[in-house]
Design brief:
26% helix, 4 domains, conserved putative lor/sdh protein from methanococcus maripaludis s2 fold, disordered N terminus, OB fold (Dihydrolipoamide Acetyltransferase, E2P)
Amino acid sequence: MKKNVVGGWASLGLWAAAVGSVCAGESVKSPSDSKPTLTVTITTPQTASLAQKINANGNLAAWQEAIIGAEANGLKITDVRVNVGDRVQRGDVLVTLQSDTLRAELAQAEAALAEATASAQETKAQSDRARSLQQQGFFSNAQLSQTLAADASAQARVQSARALVQLQTVRLSQTQVRAPDAGVISARQATVGSVVGAGTELFRLIRQGRIEWRAEVTAAEIGRIQVGALVQVKAASGQLLQGKVRMVAPSVDAQTRNAMVYVDLPAATGSARAGMYAQGEIALGQSQALTVPQSAVVVRDGFSHVYTVGADQKVSQLKVQTGRQSGDRVEVTRGLKADARVVASGGAFLNHGDTVRVVDAPTAPAAPAKATP
């Protein structure tokens, strides 16, 4: 009991000493007020020229796809010379059809032409003799007219026979199906031994091997896109492609309210293929923006913040809205003044109201002077 009483008087004495110190004008400081939380460097927002871009999604597609079919009717395929993925040149033979019957018909037409030509030559000689005899009075006008009519009929038969030869020649040439343009075979239906009819699809050809990106943009963005704008496209295969806007669709889809933008891509597309999904950025030009280092932006609770330092060396947390990025700089579109003193890095370790020690930003070391000879 005596020990507890003595301890109580000792505690009471310490309390009295503390009260006396306060009354004498001495201030009591908390550890947080006397010691800075962190040593930081500060920076000020800078105005920079940043690229304006529109992000869009879309599919890669063939620039133009040609359907190659048979013109001859009822002929059998005897040879197929190309397959899917093969590159062909304009005029290359892709398929050969059976031609024996057409060759025989062409020979028959040529024989008929020769016969008609011989007959026409005979009637021409007769008409020439008739003119001479008519001038001498041995032929009447009626007889001369009959001879000239026979000559004209013979010449018409020659023209008809010649046209038939041309027709058979064309039909014979159709037994070789040729490529209408240079490009890449994208589909094949031709099979050796099958009998094809006129108009039967045999191949599909990506003309010149060119593909394009068909991007979908909103109706609000379509007015900002100009023909010829530079575009960077990333295909699903990971390949980056550089292209240009070829055309902006003249109408907007009534269901999705999106418009189509057609972007020309280089012919040598590597791993990119028609039908792939792709993302891209359409460049719109440059504009001025207020930027801070990316390290100065702290994301908390799904929002972006920066910390500013006041004259009392205390930090304030500001909620900001960020925009474009360029290198290690981030655009701040709202919530920050141009003359603010922003903590350059380390904001993740700070809280609103913390005291910090500000030091100068480190400068790059000067290049050593070169010795003169």
